[in-house]
Amino acid sequence: MPFYLFKARYTAGAIKAMVENPQDREAAARPLIEAVGGKLHHLFFCFGDDDVIALIEAPDDKAMAAGAMAVGASGAFSAGSTTKLMTSKEAMAAMKAAKTASAAYRPIAA
Prior knowledge:
The protein has four helices and four strands; from the N terminus they run E-H-H-E-E-H-E-H.
C-alpha cells in the first residue's frame, strides 16, 4: 500500500478544546483511517507551520482523499495537506524509468 504524509493546523477552537479537555488524537484518528482501509503508523504533534503530522498507509489515492476530506469536514483544522510518499525502492524504479524516458526527450536548444 502507498504511504502518505498528512500535515495539518488545528483551529484555535480545536486547540482550546484540547487544552480544556486533553485527549488522545491518535486514538481518535486511527478508526477513521482504518475505515478507509488504511493504517496509521504514527501521529506526531509538532512545532512550526503545522500542529500535527501523520504517517499513513492507505490502499490508494481515493481512500486517502476520503480520509483527508472527512477530517477536513470536521472543522477541527484551519489548513492541511497530503503528500504521497515513495519508498527508496519505488524511487529507484522511477529513476530507471526516467533513464529510459530521457532517450525520448529533446531538451531546449539555444
